[in-house]
Amino acid sequence: MNSLPFTFRTKIYFIKTLQNCNDLVFATLTHAKILKSGFLNDTFTTNYLINCYIRLQKTAPAFQLFDEMPEPNVVSYSSLMSGYINVGKPQICLWLFREMQKGTVLPNEFTFATAIKACSILANLKGGKQIHGHVEIFGYQFNLVVCSSLVDMYGKCNEVDLARRVFDSMEGKNVVSWTSMITAYAQSGRGHEALEVFREFNWLVREHANQFILASVINACASLGKLISGKVAHGAVIRCGHHLDDVVASALVDMYAKCGCIVYSDRVFRRVSNPCVIPYTSMIVAAGKHGLGKLSIELFEEMIDRGIRPNNVTFLAVLHACSHSGLVDESLEYLNSMSRKHGMEPDAKHYTCVVDMLGRTGHLDEAYQLAKSIKVNNDEGAVLWGTLLSASRLHGRVEIAVEASKRVIESNQQVASAYVTLSNTYVLAGEWENAHSLRTKMKQNGVCKEPGCSWVEIKDSTYVFYAGDVSFERGSEVLSMLRELERKMKERGYKGRTTGLVFVDVEEEAMEEIVGLHSEKLALAFGLISIPNGVTIRIMKNLRMCRDCHEAFKWISEITERDIVVRDVNRFHHFDKGLCTCRDFW
DNA sequence: ATAGGGTTAG
């Protein structure tokens, strides 16, 4: 007779205990008590226990509990699914979702939101679309959270227009939905639309912008090289009281650097009271991009002194900075220190960065030896050997170019570009017959290369320049301006590879490549003709911001006494997702 | 009653 209230009180006690429990020993103890009292058969109590383990990131006991539950419900499934997302295992989350569909428990809005998030993390468009279908079947297509997660998922899969379609279909929107949409645009290289949506947000929503939305807006300004918009966003950050936020500060540091104002980057960075690894890395990248390798190194050492652990991105940033400032010995030292001092194994990207530096500075044999010593998969191998291939072309080292191109072709990636670069190597070395037979082989295999391109934004218009194509608007004016600039640069002692070479006595094939490498200078020349100030030059990934280019820009800026904002589009989104094409690969 | 969505550096 008395057992029922007693049982009830025990259950309440267990639940209260588990709700506030943040200690594994205590959780295990409570688990044992629940087991003893037979409450593991109770779905509610066990769900609390599962959630407690998930809060402590212990998925193994959570899964075991779930597995042994007589009647898991939708909460049991959803909890465990989000638990696996929290420990970085979205695959298992989706597996659970599929298992759930085999049984009788029906998914609800929580389950869908979680499953969609897993697809977002994995950039799994196919899975995401499937779940979107189920969302409509089950009638959750009007749920705010489900829709926001769909917007985010489509954004992360680079399907921004689908994201927009979901966004437009939403009746009520909150800050999170707006953030998802803005982020989707910002991360897909559609910064203008990101800013447009942000304007709409300010117009339609009374709510203040929070740190999430501001970080994304700043990111959009950065990718557009829009300094003024960036400063406006910075103003909003200060007004809304988010200037102490680590994430926002990192975005600002990055934005100012990409807009050419490293002084502001430094100022923002120095105001962060306890910067974690990310603001430090942003600042190291910023310094590196501006050719301040020594500053990058100082920042890195300062970070170590303050006990902040660098991660693989930080090391990549330092190596990149050394590479771009010609600090060869330092770069090798940092590469070695990764495993020796910091207990981290360098990955393919770190090695590729160093191989690139050795190659560009003419240490071809060392670069080759290092490249050979690295274990890589196909994708990594294509990048690594492609880097060496370009370097050997630059320095006319045919034997290494042949070996490198062989490896690129073996890795079965972007064969076209490998062919073209090798062909150009032959041309530059004067081995016309080899070049010719290679070109023939390419034609036989139906391989052709997409032309490289660069572009310049002037006010609201974008001017695009394709490699080898001088037929654009005011082309002859641009060319004569270019020659004029080159003459002035030479007069003042500029010794980089010159653009004029491009137009004389070079075989057609080789010209395509060389014009490709220098088309940003065409863009620059064009910009100087058209507008006096604030020209934004965007350089695609394949048109590396090598030391030469950087020097050239400095010279041009000096000669013309004009501010030139140089923007290196390093994070080309397709590249991040491994969907690169010829154009952005090299 | 327990479970869900958005931000930063390469």
TrEMBL record:
| Pfam families (alphabetical) | DYW_deaminase, E_motif, PPR, PPR_2
- InterPro entries registered for this protein in UniProt: DYW_dom, E_motif, PPR_At4g14850-like_plant, PPR_rpt, TPR-like_helical_dom_sf
Could you give a GO molecular-function term held by this entry? RNA binding
> GO BP, one example?
RNA modification
Zinc-finger as a keyword of this entry, yes or no, is no
Instruction: Map the PPR repeats onto residue numbers.
Output: 73-107, 143-177, 276-310, 311-346
Which family would the database say this protein is a member of? Belongs to the PPR family. PCMP-H subfamily.
Q: What is this protein called?
A: Pentatricopeptide repeat-containing protein At4g15720
Which organism's genome codes for this protein? Durio zibethinus
